[in-house]
């Protein structure tokens, strides 16, 4: 009887696995047609100086509304897109859309910067740079107003090709930000050799302010400044966190405390209010 029960469990497990795989495959197919049909939307989250008065850039974040499943987080669909080799098409679609929105809706702010997330895999494909360049030309978006956010895991592979692509981007005036800094394992020597302007401290560390997180943040800020880089702290939700980061000498803050990711219409209002503050805030270049 015990054996029978074991077998049943195996059957149940296989069925569960099967339906998980089915679900995954369905999601992958839906994603494929959504990417092609440009059904994935974008939102924008402001990155501000620690005092909240100056805007560094707007981070562009993908939003996928699935007709059956509702809103699916990029943390869930980006890995699927990477596995299905859809990520390149996806990112270039996001970039193009963001550049067009910036030009058409936010043209009154000519110094507005955008930060776009790039995946490891696509950055390693050799014509990535050409496609990127083509989009910038086509949308007439100034390359010196573009930040590309890359993660540390990027540097684990094909370092020389990576560096070459990065340098070509830098020649156009594009800047690089290291995203989720502290969660990977990049060595200082490596980072130093690459054209990086900003480190983004992962929100896991901001979360732990008060329980030791500040020690790491302090070290990152000192190191970054020593290497002529700036620091953005991500996921800042409380005034306490913001004042701690300010005390430690952090440069920029991104998080719900100052602004959430917003769709285009909402961002228009936000930008209007922001630029009409009495203290005359600035767009930083
Ligand atoms: P990320 O680049 O580190 O983006 C920051 C994430 O933190 C965003 O989640 C943002 O909504 C969230 N966030 C911002 N402020 C706060 C806060 O105060 N509290 C909390 N709890 N969260 C905050 P989102 O939009 O879900 O994106 C998740 C990740 O998906 C991004 O992390 C990025 O790695 C990836 N991603 C998003 N859009 C794209 C894209 O277009 N291309 C690629 N390759 N990756 C993307
Ligand atoms: Mg990012
Ligand atoms: Mg991040
Ligand atoms: Mg992240």
UniProtKB/TrEMBL annotation:
Q: Which domain of life is it from?
A: Bacteria
Annotated EAL domain ranges read 24-275
Protein name in the entry: Cyclic di-GMP phosphodiesterase Gmr
Look up and give the organism this protein is from.
Iodobacter fluviatilis
């Amino acid at each position: 009887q015990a054996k029978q029960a074991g077998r049943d469990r195996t059957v149940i497990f296989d069925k569960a696995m099967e339906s998980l795989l089915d679900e995954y495959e369905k999601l992958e197919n839906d994603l494929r047609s959504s990417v092609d049909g440009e059904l994935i939307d974008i939102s924008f989250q402001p990155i501000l100086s620690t005092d909240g008065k100056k805007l560094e850039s707007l981070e562009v974040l993908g939003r996928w509304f699935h007709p059956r499943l509702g809103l699916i987080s990029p943390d869930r669909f980006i890995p699927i897109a990477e596995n299905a080799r859809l990520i390149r098409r996806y990112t270039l679609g996001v970039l193009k859309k963001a550049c067009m929105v910036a030009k058409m809706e936010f043209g009154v702010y000519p110094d507005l910067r955008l930060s776009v997330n790039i995946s490891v895999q696509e950055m390693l494909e050799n014509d990535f740079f050409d496609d990127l360049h083509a989009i910038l030309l086509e949308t007439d978006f100034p390359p010196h107003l573009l930040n590309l956010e890359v993660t540390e895991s990027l540097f684990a592979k094909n370092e020389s090709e990576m560096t070459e692509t990065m340098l070509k981007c830098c020649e156009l005036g594009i800047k690089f930000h290291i995203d989720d800094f502290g969660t990977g394992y990049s060595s200082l020597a490596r980072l130093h050799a690459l054209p990086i302007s900003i480190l983004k401290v992962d929100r896991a560390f901001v979360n732990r302010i008060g329980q030791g997180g500040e020690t790491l943040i302090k070290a990152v800020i000192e190191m970054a400044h020593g290497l002529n880089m700036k620091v953005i702290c991500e996921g800042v939700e409380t005034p306490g966190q913001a004042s701690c980061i300010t005390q430690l000498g952090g440069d920029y803050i991104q998080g719900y405390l100052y602004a959430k990711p917003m769709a285009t219409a909402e961002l228009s209002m936000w930008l209007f209010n922001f630029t009409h503050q009495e203290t005359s805030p600035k767009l930083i270049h």
